[in-house]
Amino acid sequence: MTTKKCNGGQLSPLFDKKMDWVGIILLYSKYTLAITMIVVIALAPAWIARQTKKDKQQMGWVRIYSWLFGWTGIGWLIGLYIAIRK
User: Fold this and answer.
1) pTM
2) Could you tell me what percentage of the chain is helix, strand and coil, using 3-state DSSP and rounding each to the nearest 5?
3) Are 66 and 79 in contact (CB under 8 A)?
4) 83 in Cβ contact with 48 (< 8 Å)
5) How many whole angstroms separate alpha carbon 3 and alpha carbon 12?
6) What is the SS3 assignment for 5?
7) CA distances from 48 to 14, 31, 41, 85 (A)
8) Around 59, how many Cα atoms within 13 Å sit in the side-chain half-sphere?
9) Which residues is 6 bridged to in the sheet?
10) Is 28 helix (H, G, I), strand (E, B) or coil?
11) Calculated CA dihedral for residues 71, 77, 83, 84, nearest 10 degrees
């Protein structure tokens, strides 16, 4: 087993393994946070429409635009507009 030198001293191989686990944990945390943010943003128009007490027909349009056409960005914006207008 080899050890790495840092500033003239030696680091144990265990230190490298700990750094690998820290990196893996940070990587998973980053992706979990990113996926959570994407889901929250994607579902925002439907949640806003529900909070503003839209009727069933308007809620249906919001869901159709934001969920089916939301991948375009334009559909998500139209769904958001329908959700917030009075």
Assistant:
1) 0.63
2) 75, 5, 20
3) yes
4) yes
5) 6
6) strand
7) 50, 26, 11, 10
8) 11
9) 9
10) helix
11) 150
The burial of 44, by beta-carbon neighbours within 10 Å (0-12 exposed, 13-18 middle, 19 or more buried), is given as: middle
Residues contacting 49, CB < 8 A, separation 6+: 58, 59, 62, 82, 83
What type of residue is 53?
K
Per-residue pLDDT of the chain (86 residues; tens, 9 = 90+): 455 555 555 655 555 555 677 888 888 999 999 999 999 988 889 899 989 988 889 888 888 888 888 778 888 888 889 899 87
**Residue pair 4/16 in contact by the 8 Å Cβ criterion:** yes
Tokens linked to 16: 């490298």
